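Handout, section 4.2: multi-component inputs.
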Amino acid sequence: MSNPIVTCRGVTKVFGKGDLAVHALAGVDLDFAPGDFATLAGPSGSGKTTLLNMIGALDTPTAGEVSIAGNRLNDMNKSQLSDLRLTKIGFVFQSLNLIPVLSAVENVEFVLELQHCPAAEQRERAIKVLEQVGLKGMENRRPSAMSGGQQQRVAVARALVTKPAIVLADEPTANLDSKNSSDLMDLMAQLNADLGITFVIGTHDVSVMKRSRRHLEMLDGRISSDTRR
Amino acid sequence: MMKSLKTFTPLAWRNLWRNARRTSITLIVVSVGLWSVLFFNSFMNAWVQSSKDAALDLLLGSGQIHAVGYMDDPNIEALMPPPSAALTAALDDTRITDWTTRIALPGVVVSEYKTLPVTVMGVNPEAEARISSLPGKLVEGRYLDDTDDDGVVLGLHMVERLKTGIGRRVILMSQGIDGAMAERSFDVVGVFDADQATEDFFAFTGLKASQAFLGLDDQIAEIVVVLPDEADVDAEFTRLREAAPDLDARTWKELNLFLASTDSFMGAFIYIWLGVVFSLMAIGIVNTQLMAVFERTQEFGLLRALGMKPRLVLLLVTLESAMLIGAGVLIGAAISALTIWSLQGGIDLSAYALAVEMAQGGNIIYMEYDPGSFVLFSVLIWILGIGVALWPARRASKASPVEAMRYAS
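Output:
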């Protein structure tokens, strides 16, 4: 097995103190390899979102270690975490993924701008990735003029355009109908296959789980099952 | 930094118009606030200027020189000889526009119907025409011809009260140099229309005629000095004091304390007004910007999640505030300039003449566009506005991506 993109060792996250302390993660050990196409499921309160936040460098553990693409989160300050998210991680959220005043192409370019990518290259890369996600001809539409499925595709394009090590998607299909949900999963599976980018998808949707090659279940802050197909 | 500004400027501008109504309200608050500051600043400057013009041009001049003690008790024993050679040389300096001498002593004017207190003014008509606006305020008859002219020019209101008029005679009485009451009848040759105080308290006749009437040789009561630039008044009067150390030389500020304090008060008042207006504006700015930040909590969380650093979020929101307040400032300045331009003909306050006179103002206020004040107050409000808007911006920059995303879901 090649070096893992994500490594979690004894990851614990406690919210609150004393009697009010909530153990959201209780010693998670987990690796994601390059090219993984994994879903993460579990009942509400199982620690699924907290784990995704750790893997996404949005939060740091109370105890244990998280490494992303060789960067140990525990040693990083907020600014370094921002840089890590910008360069190594792509995000697709459940809703309100896009900046409403920017067009599709501008939303995609925005992260390249944050990376100080040259303007000409920004536009070229953004248009190319929008084509990849099937949005050719819709580059100049604003989110309000796009369907939910199209908006999620723009979010996927934005996640991919920086060529991240891993894309994290938290309930990406939750607000989509079954057709759009299926289309989005097809797209992510295709991109995973074509580009070899690691996808980790948090979901409650059984149809989404069935599309993954690796499925993890969480219960009470621990990985209760890890199935590879 | 410059690259970030270039990137965020169009984004910030679009963000402003996500809630056009709120943005418009803030624009109105800022522009009306600035307008009120610029308009009142211009109005008050014009008011002070009109007060100065009215008082200084009429009789006061830039300042006056008297014998020591005259200002405390202006009587015939407190007169002075004509200016010495040294003082004349100082007065003839090119830094002084003009000067003249006068008699000014308390007395009474008597008609067939009434006796009224008056200040007997002996003047040099030729010089007065150059330095005083009073000869131009004649509404009936003529002004004095020369220093020997023994006619008398009275104010319109006094003429009405005395029930006299052109061609009729009045008697002026005052203490003569011999200590006895001097009195003499004078033909009323002219009637002037000025403020009521001037109309009621002055009777003008020729300088030599007044000296003769009072039994004087060439003594005078005052030397009136007119300067080209008010800013030089203190320095020039210091010079005059050195030239005439035994006399009492006073600037207009020392002679008319009300006018001087009005001048300095108006200067301070505009800053008090600015403080009041800005406090109200600040409440509006902070309130609307905080609302905008709260509404976009999840968006800021998203930006942070995407890797945008807190300082860039701070920059983005501050840029929005800077553009919003800047636009308000531009609109406010433009409306102010337009208002002042539309009032170039002057604001006629003659309907409130009595009140205006009591406040020593001019009847017509001529407002002027002052680029320096426009820039100063516009920049001041813009910077202060950005300053208070930093609070909401800081809140936005502190948005935690995890909290923001949780809040949204």
